[in-house]
Amino acid sequence: MIELDLLRHGETELTQWQTSILRGQLDDALTDAGWQQMQQTFDQAFLNTAWQILVSSPLQRCARFAQTQAQQHDLPVLLLDNLKEMNFGDWEGLSTADLYQHFPDDLARFWQTPTQFSPPNAEKIQDFALRIQTALQDIYCLAQQYQYKKVCVITHGGVIKLCYCLAQQRSLDDILTLPASLATLHHFRLDFQAQQFVLTCH
Fold first, then answer.
1. Where are the alpha helices (DSSP H) in 14-84?
2. Which stretches of 31-171 are DSSP H helices?
3. pLDDT in single tens digits along all 202 residues of the chain
């Protein structure tokens, strides 16, 4: 079993004025405030948690922070492409207010039953779930190989919400209702039991 702490990135250039933008896989940078938000959370947790490796999404709002912390604390760092945020297709970069104004029915369907409706050209929620499960398996195998017991993953809100769905055995239709605020840390355990990977809340 490994302890898996997931840190969401902080405020970004796209969200400093409008927090409800679906940024998805758009590669916007952290603002200074966003970096400070993450730094405060990271420093407080690092005092009590001896992380042995940092694993990060390759998008710069996660990766640059991870690489800086790894260098400062002499930790290995790994960027995993599968840890990217969900791709919202044609809705990327749009605010929920704009979507509500122009596509209210579609937005409602996506919010209530994402397993049955995806934005145009977006990643299906089922495919997103499989991608994140693959990332978790890769992290577990890496931890077993190097005997890591405590791993910090720097990633996105959608990834964290998906992990809660997996850990709590909830429907994927619940994913968009779950909380994962900017620069917050979320605690899980990952194990391999009965020939399957098991994620639990810590």
1. 32-46, 60-73
2. 32-46, 60-73, 96-102, 104-112, 125-146, 157-167
3. 999 999 999 999 987 776 688 999 999 999 999 999 999 999 999 988 889 999 999 999 999 999 999 999 999 999 999 999 999 999 999 999 999 999 999 999 999 999 999 999 999 999 999 999 999 999 999 999 999 999 999 999 999 999 999 999 999 999 999 989 999 999 999 998 878 899 999 8
Q: What is the pTM of this model?
A: 0.95
Domains of the chain plus CATH, in order, are 2-85+124-201 (3.40.50.1240)
Please tell me what DSSP assigns to residue 123: P
Q: Which residue has the tokens 């302890």?
A: 3
Question: Dihedral through CA 27, CA 32, CA 34, CA 40, nearest 10?
Answer: 140
